[in-house]
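call fold(seq) -> tokens
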Amino acid sequence: MATTTWLPSCMRLHPRGLDAARQSRREFREARRRASITLNSLERTGGLATIATRRIVAVAVTPSAHFANGIVMTDTQTLTRYKAWADDAFLKVVARVPAEALAAPRPIIFGSLIRTLHHSLAMDYVWQCHLLQKPHGLTTRNPEHCPEIDELTARQRQMDEWYVDYAAATSPAALDEFVDFEFIGGGAGRMKRRDIVLHVVNHTTYHRGHVASMLYDIGVFPPTTDLPVFLRTLSAGP
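ret:
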């Protein structure tokens, strides 16, 4: 079945939204039952294992949740999937830009268009390490080595998939846990896991806008990556 994006069909939103879902308590009970089974299974196998089927895990039924084919999708799950969708669409356009234009010096903090994209990827990695509570080894937000666009794109998609799976596999209680870390620039930090994920999504959105401005400067029109467009895409389905 053809789709317009790489996202699986199980991520389509309920066409009539939450009101329709609320009319059937059976759907709520079924969502909770599937969530319990899935989370128990994840706990037995290590908790944060990659979900090979890429199905949405229903971890809670909340007023702010979305439904995808009758299964609950929380705000955190929605945002990580939005980031993956937006990055994918954006990088498809960037990949058509000549390498010289991507690396051309610019009067910006990261030096060029491609290095700005690499900064965003590097910070995704740093926050991933904070969530996993392991060292990231970086001492700067602008790493000296910058990969070519093909490698950068592949690594970004892989990183986005990790965040999608992390959001799917992590319970609301775990997302409310605090994580202690050290900022690259120095100083201690402490944030909830859900706020770290929110920052990762927001940070990437900021830099997509930054790079979009550079694309306009060279006559390239970036894709529309607004959240409402993503939600509409899911609602439309294949």
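The two ends are 7 Å apart (CA to CA).
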